[in-house]
TrEMBL record:
Pfam family, one: ABC_tran
The protein's name in its UniProt record: ABC transporter ATP-binding protein
Domain of life: Bacteria
Organism: Gryllotalpicola reticulitermitis
UniProt-listed NCBIfam families: oligo_HPY
Lineage, opening ranks: Bacteria, Bacillati, Actinomycetota, Actinomycetes, Micrococcales
Amino acid sequence: MPEEIMLEARDIAVLFNQSKGFARIFGGARRSDSALHALDGVSLSLRRGESLALVGESGSGKSTFANVLVGRLAPAAGQVHFEGEHIGAERSISHRRRIQMVFQDPYSSLNPRMTVRRAIGELLRVHRIVPPSEIDAELVRLVNLVGLDEEVLDAYPGQFSGGQRQRLAIARALAVRPDILVADEPVSALDVSVQATVLNLISELQRELGLSVLFIGHNLSVVRSLCQRVAVMYLGRIVEVADVDEIFDNPKHPYTRALIASIPRMHRTIEREPAIQGDPPSPINLPVGCRFQSRCPLVQDRCRAEDPALRLVSATPTAGGEFEDHLSACHYAEELV
Ligand SMILES: Nc1ncnc2c1ncn2[C@@H]1O[C@H](COP(=O)(O)OP(=O)(O)OP(=O)(O)O)[C@@H](O)[C@H]1O
Ligand SMILES: [Mg+2]
């Protein structure tokens, strides 16, 4: 039986208008000349109860994609479907409730002028999560759920450490009992010593509550223990999607291989190419052909002429005994061994 898709992005494009002034000064540059292509034809599905990682280097479009999914940004093209229903950027209160986001900087989701009790209590009231008489008990349950004591309820966000604040941001997101959590680099701003505990917390909650989680990160090594599937983003495109073990053992895109090669040796499973060199091209001035051509150690003439589409390259058995599609956007995916 096919797994149920909770959230599906279809062909999402996002353009940011850059330096309109410049275009005017240098005379005649068309509007499209200065558009920054943050996302270009991105399709990705999140299944019920799964933990899916989205990885890629800085500027590849991960946060832009997260913002489209949660309705904070309207795409120039493409659609978001929730349980099969098209939902625009103008979301109903129910859709807003059911898709929650955790940000890199926990301050973005916590009001510094409100105690935790007031801020999260307000959400419980507005969304009628529990009857008013049960709000206090629910608040205690929520902070305990993220590993904090009930004393935190009467403190302000500024009184906490980064790790505690991120736990509170997670409690806040979970307060409204979402189905989906989009976690955009939830530990990048935290001390290395607390990163693992917060990641494990998200992972435990995902399993206990049956949440569908899109976990966004830079670092491929941390997602290995957290996620079942991985999608790799490069310059506004998804370039590879596969089961997590398959991604590490049998990557089918040179960019993914470079990401894996850049992981410290202890965690490496393949050692073929050196870590990725150079910078990506500008998203304002994209090359003809493959976007990875300028950094690809295996580039061929075809890569400079034809833009490779994301396509099915194999279906591989997973730890759960199912078969998982392996998608790659490399002309020569089958030749990567
Ligand atoms: N509001 C904006 N206006 C103009 N350009 C933007 C805006 N937001 C993002 N961009 C550009 O869009 C591209 C994608 O940015 P985005 O923040 O989505 O990347 P990211 O993968 O989340 O990067 P990071 O890992 O650094 O968080 C980048 O080139 C960025 O400079
Ligand atoms: Mg980001």
